[in-house]
């Protein structure tokens, strides 16, 4: 790929420790994001996708700690810089929007005050110019009569409007990278469509790169260029979005796609993945997915496969695609099957 | 199939009073459900879909009489549920069970699985005391858990397993109708698929009738026979599954369907993006409640409440509440965008 890479994460390790246990929430995550593109990070609860995002922005609280790896943002390793430098990047060059717009906004300040705060900290704008810029931002994110809205408090706004305000705050300083952590999960589907369209439009206009964290494969298919599928704190597959849906390689990705009840086609019987996610305190030593994988062999249970490139920058972490595969040769030939 | 009607809801209204002012008088009402009628046939799955605040959960609660409806009748097996006193209603709940959304909040953390299941059996007195343990183990196996997990506590189970316990509890009293209120919404998709398959299997085995309340249209398409779409307390469209997804007539249903992201990047579809938010149910818009956001709305939409009816060209049993169904279908009336 000749594209410029804006973010390159290598072997990121984020660990939560207390006296008698440790949870390796993010355990060797690597992926990269070309400039101006959208990377989807998908996975189910506990797969480590949100912790990955928080680690990028150094927002992990005690007892969690980033213990290893590199986060290269425009060539600079974010794990090595000082807190002060990090503050100037956070909210300025990298912004984040969260799932729950009600708890991310401060209920005792007006919308205008909250947008102005960001503008003051990062751009030194005063009240007058801050107000003008706030109105402009609210207009940008499609909020009607922004002059009145900046005087209102978060509880006076609907969920969709609050999420628009969050996006306005995130965009206040023209960030180069926007991290959206389940930005539409709490919203109704017609409002979700509005917000996704807004993020897409703003990305085109401003040339932002976006990391879209979600559990919804529909959102991934419609917004992302590349996808990293996470399971048990690790990336199990990384591919461009078309390949991922058309020719998924990892049995987990295939299982995930087979589990989705589709609204656009009829599926007689869903093919769920058996069992449930292993406890993060007690991760299996081999492939994290081995206990639920229909193809697993002794090798999978014993030894963790590495994330290897198989074609055109697409990577998969699975023994099926290695020379050491000792299971069903049929699977190696044709890959795991999608049912729909 | 000429199945018998198990549940018949007629002109159901549920208004919640808003207290205010100096004397705490009722100053207004939230019209959560406003004149809703439908029936469920034995053995079918009927889904109620719609966005937050459309009244789908309130309808489910009213059927269980967890809230007492303001007006209307609810007939179950030919008997008016609203005419029953508390004791009679409690007996009737043997036939109507519910599974809630949150598997963490709906199980008592201090009761073991056996206690949870035995309590349900005891209240309805369906199984003699000495057989309850045996029955509890059998129920766990029916929902795909291990019989030897019967003495464990809810915290020892995962979310999907807890939802299975919730299902086992509902099954314990051998109900006819199960109301599933967002029963799979809190689950991860791989586990959600397991629970959906389980519900379908149980329906076949025990001839259960489901009222399925959900916002995820993928889930609804998978499980339902017929679907009701609600908007702001009113039914806007009702049809069998195939018709609703392939040939929706109401502009709101069309917008709702087109808003769902499709998990296939090769499919590029035309999306109807609705403007604005759902209005408040305290002072809902006059006439058709959707007219403030509808791309086809005309003057009549603001004045007259549209009737939910079958327009000649539509399939049997397919009804929509829109003044302009015919003109939109023929292309005479186009959207304003």
Automatic annotation (TrEMBL), chain A:
A GO MF term: ATP binding
GO cellular component, one term: plasma membrane
Record flagged with keyword Membrane: yes
Top-level taxon in the UniProt lineage: Bacteria
GO annotation terms (biological process): peptide transport
Protein localization: Cell membrane
Pfam families linked to this entry: ABC_tran, oligo_HPY
SUPFAM superfamilies from the UniProt entry: P-loop containing nucleoside triphosphate hydrolases
Membrane topology (UniProt): Peripheral membrane protein
Stored InterPro entries: AAA+_ATPase, ABC_Ni/Peptide_Import, ABC_transporter-like_ATP-bd, ABC_transporter-like_CS, Oligopep_ABC_C, P-loop_NTPase
Family of this protein: Belongs to the ABC transporter superfamily.
Name this protein carries in UniProt: Peptide/nickel transport system ATP-binding protein
UniProtKB/TrEMBL annotation, chain B:
Gene3D superfamilies documented for this protein: P-loop containing nucleotide triphosphate hydrolases
Alphabetized InterPro entries for the sequence: AAA+_ATPase, ABC_transp_ATP-bind, ABC_transporter-like_ATP-bd, ABC_transporter-like_CS, Oligopep_ABC_C, P-loop_NTPase
MF terms (GO), sorted A to Z: ATP binding; ATP hydrolysis activity
Record's keyword annotation contains Cell inner membrane: no
Domain ABC transporter: 7-257
UniProt keywords, alphabetically: ATP-binding, Nucleotide-binding, Transport
Stored SMART domains: AAA
GO terms under biological process: peptide transport; transmembrane transport
Keyword ATP-binding: yes
Pfam families: ABC_tran, oligo_HPY
Protein family according to the UniProt entry: Belongs to the ABC transporter superfamily.
NCBIfam families assigned to the protein according to its UniProt record, in alphabetical order: oligo_HPY (TIGR01727), PRK11308.1 (NF008453)
Protein name: Peptide/nickel transport system ATP-binding protein/oligopeptide transport system ATP-binding protein
